What does this fold into?
Amino acid sequence: MQEFLKVTGLVIGVFPQGEYDRRIVLLTREQGKLTAFVKGARRQGSRFCAATDMFAFGSFDLYVGRNSYTVQDVKITNYFENLRTDIESAYYAMYFAELADYYGVEGGDDALLLLLLYRALQGLKSERLSNPFVRYVYEIKLFYVEGEIIPIDRAGEFPDATYAAVDYIGSASIEKLYNFTVSDAVMEDLKTIGNYERKHLIDRRLKSLEILEPLL
It folds into this structure.
């Protein structure tokens, strides 16, 4: 008897597979991070072509094989099309996705991680928010979500406004995460804190960050 699984997820990795297929990495609400194969996705006119691009978000119907998943159907509700034309935002988004991939766990409970990544991608579309601000808030909140936040005093001494901003990031719901603003000085402090924690908590190279930072 064939087994099928429906998940809500975001494409955070896309790789060619054979001549016409694709292998995608999904961050899902129900099953954490998983890899799925998409047959014929690279064929001209395939209904799966755009639906398996980076940052496509929606519902995926998967066939559960013995050792792998195969996409049978998909309904995309958000393509984040701005990332196809805004190169700087696209590089930020790739960095966000690589961090999510680092923390995502197959079969894990990654619902909050998915929501955080989705909210950060929305932030990259906002004219009210700068991309660096979206990044620094995403980084710090990510460490909170994953239970890895360390005392920020280790990163240096900061004014009360900076501590208040970090407290807000840690305690705010993800839906309201970007409902505040900070001064340029506090934003520099958030950058310092995020950089310090990332270097101490992540034990591998982040290729997307190596591309992003020289551009900035």
DSSP finds six helices and five strands in the chain. The longest strand covers residues 4-17. Residues 4-79 form a domain with the OB fold (Dihydrolipoamide Acetyltransferase, E2P) fold (CATH 2.40.50.140). Residues 124 and 131 are 6 Å apart (CA to CA).
